[in-house]
Amino acid sequence: MKCDLTKTEEIESMFQKIKEQLGGVDVCVNNAGVDLFLDCKTGSLSDTKTMYELNVFAAITVSQLTIQSIQERNLNDGHIINMSSVCESTVHEDSSCHMYTPTKCALKAFTEGLRHELRKEKTKIRTTMISPGLVDTPQARADMDDNLFCPETCLQPDDVAAAVTFALSAPPCVNVRHICLHAIHDSF
Amino acid sequence: MKCDLTKTEEIESMFQKIKEQLGGVDVCVNNAGVDLFLDCKTGSLSDTKTMYELNVFAAITVSQLTIQSIQERNLNDGHIINMSSVCESTVHEDSSCHMYTPTKCALKAFTEGLRHELRKEKTKIRTTMISPGLVDTPQARADMDDNLFCPETCLQPDDVAAAVTFALSAPPCVNVRHICLHAIHDSF
Amino acid sequence: MKCDLTKTEEIESMFQKIKEQLGGVDVCVNNAGVDLFLDCKTGSLSDTKTMYELNVFAAITVSQLTIQSIQERNLNDGHIINMSSVCESTVHEDSSCHMYTPTKCALKAFTEGLRHELRKEKTKIRTTMISPGLVDTPQARADMDDNLFCPETCLQPDDVAAAVTFALSAPPCVNVRHICLHAIHDSF
Amino acid sequence: MKCDLTKTEEIESMFQKIKEQLGGVDVCVNNAGVDLFLDCKTGSLSDTKTMYELNVFAAITVSQLTIQSIQERNLNDGHIINMSSVCESTVHEDSSCHMYTPTKCALKAFTEGLRHELRKEKTKIRTTMISPGLVDTPQARADMDDNLFCPETCLQPDDVAAAVTFALSAPPCVNVRHICLHAIHDSF
């Protein structure tokens, strides 16, 4: 199912279709994200907003609709997995991710807030944030210098998938709150 | 000078007027901010975006235009003061600020990124983040229960002003990076 | 092999025995730790030091001796896993862990420092910090009220073991830096 | 009054003398600290312990005795100021402070725990942590290369004193929780 995540209507209609075809959504993995390599001093506001649209607002909408879908079926469990980045742990001196990092810090705080709310309600819906380092994806290869992509400096997509699987496959009452992983010689 | 900070054009025209009338901007204090008391689970996206417009995007624009104004006059110093909140240090269990906290975490990371960039350029433009607890303002009184507003639980505007003055009046080579202050019995 | 980890000589002699019998140590899991439930205002210094002896100093010694053992055999990989606690992410209002939390914050910073040093040397020795919430152990049961020990509020030892296994079984160039996990209704 | 802060008995006898001569202690500034420039991989345990003795354990004892002195005179206010370091905010790649940073992280968590406890008791005793960057002191000059000591890269002792004064002179119900300051071109 294709969906432009920067358009709330498309997200809503995707959830509607899933409801009709599959009953609902129990687990979401907010993996989509974009880094436009802006610095804080000169990054244009419109590019900045594009990053927030996808990295923050789309993840909020998908998270909220997933919980709604779980609860309207009177279910008590499910899982929200938000993909952050190793950059959220430290604002790095290297400016290539300076305008991107705040979007991931916002997503982290959102995920934590959501976790507190779900616990207060005594639901068993779990929340996980995964903070990977650089991943060897076609997009990353297009953006960067090819010689960065050795195993010592970047993850493979399977490594991140393994983290998702680890969080999902924990016993139902175990909440894997956070996983940070990166290539052994990643510069973060 | 009045300015709707959620409208980039108004900010730009304000900076233009200041340039014509006063020469330029050396110091900005991004004090405007709004908490619409949304929780993460149900907060509407449009209200959420309103908070990001003022708390994040306006602060970015004002910071960028201030630096531009400093550097187009070939000056080397100036000061960006961004007003965060004590909530950025810990995502609190109390949901009344759950959707607001991520905006302040984003602002913090932006301010840190900017600081690294300004240092790399070897400018002496300083950046400060101030994280106050609850402040006794007309807006806060309108939003909340009156009996919260005793000196033990909330700051006076003057207390925050004193922090701004402290940061501004430090010797030119001293960067007060962060000040967190709150009433002695504030719940954070 | 039994070892009183608060005695450096016993740790050293344990490593000596392992060297003679098995060749050396490639992986250590610094799992031993103690919380004496002291508050910051009144906790005795001697009890406080007991916690640092085990939670910080023993973990430092074991980490250093493991790296030494790896490198004196001209190996390039290995794994240091330090067991922290969910409390390191936020100083909690509940005072029962106030004097314990700083020991885990120290261990976290030590682990991060070590990671930077090992990367600078271009070794492939990995470091992982695991921050579990309350775990249902005989020690914890002895310390606390029995009705805390339902699956919603505390982990089982196997849950923590699964996190260790996940970190260890990642591909050699993947460093799982941090895992935080806790029972779904743990109060942190 | 001279006192070897690594000896608890000397601290206790200093507090006794102050009690006899001046009545008691209302404010303490735990400024003493030592960085022995150890890295995490090879730093000796005995040097490491020396740093904890002064940076952590002495500060704990002085804080506890100050609060005791305040409360045994049935006073309700006072101030504990603990001197941390800018390094506590981020574990830096530069290894010269790797074994020192954890001591300051521990001190920060101790100060936060103490703050929660004092608030729960509804006292008005305030706690402040100050995190300065490199300061131009005789000790620092002895330890380091002379050309580091220009105003752009290090603070003067007066700059830190100004932060202490700012925290102390806030109105009684205002708690300045944290101040981080450093020279404009300090590398943190």
From TrEMBL, chains A, B, C, D:
Keyword Cytoplasm on entry: no
InterPro entries xrefs: NAD(P)-bd_dom_sf (IPR036291), SDR_fam (IPR002347)
Entry keywords, A to Z: Oxidoreductase
SUPFAM superfamilies: NAD(P)-binding Rossmann-fold domains
An example Gene Ontology molecular-function term: oxidoreductase activity
Gene3D superfamilies according to UniProt: NAD(P)-binding Rossmann-like Domain
Keyword hit for Zinc-finger: no
Pfam families: adh_short
Family indicated by similarity: Belongs to the short-chain dehydrogenases/reductases (SDR) family.
Protein name: Dehydrogenase/reductase SDR family member 11-like isoform X2
Taxonomic source organism: Lingula anatina
Origin organism lineage: Eukaryota, Metazoa, Spiralia, Lophotrochozoa, Brachiopoda
